[in-house]
Design goal:
This protein is an alpha+beta fold. About 60% of the residues lie in helices and about 15% in strands. The chain has a two-stranded antiparallel ribbon with strand order 1-2. Strand 1 and strand 2 form a beta hairpin. It is rod-shaped, with a radius of gyration of 25 Å.
Length: about 80
C-alpha cells in the first residue's frame, strides 16, 4: 500500500559521551531548525565568495582592457 502525502519519519541520533541518543520532540525540532539555519548560512557564505571572485575577475579584465596590470596598481599604491 502506497502512503501518498505521508511524511517519512526521520530519526536523528547524537553521540554524547560515546552513547548514542535519539532526539525526539522539541529537541529534534530544535536540531532540525538549527540544521536549516546552518545550511542557509553556508549557502550564503558560498554565494558571497563566488560573487567576490566574479567581481575580482571582472575588475581585472577591465584593468587589462585599459592596459593596466596588478603590478601597475601596486606601484600606484592601489
Amino acid at each position: 500500500m502506497d502512503l501518498i502525502g505521508v511524511k517519512k519519519m526521520e530519526k536523528i541520533f547524537v553521540a554524547i559521551d560515546n552513547e548514542k541518543v535519539e532526539l525526539t520532540g522539541a529537541e529534534k525540532e530544535a536540531f532540525l531548525a538549527q540544521r536549516a539555519i546552518d545550511l542557509a548560512d553556508a549557502a550564503a557564505k558560498q554565494a558571497e565568495a563566488e560573487a567576490k571572485a566574479t567581481a575580482k575577475a571582472s575588475a581585472q579584465a577591465k584593468l587589462a582592457a585599459l592596459g593596466l596590470t596588478v603590478e601597475d596598481l601596486q606601484a600606484l599604491g592601489l
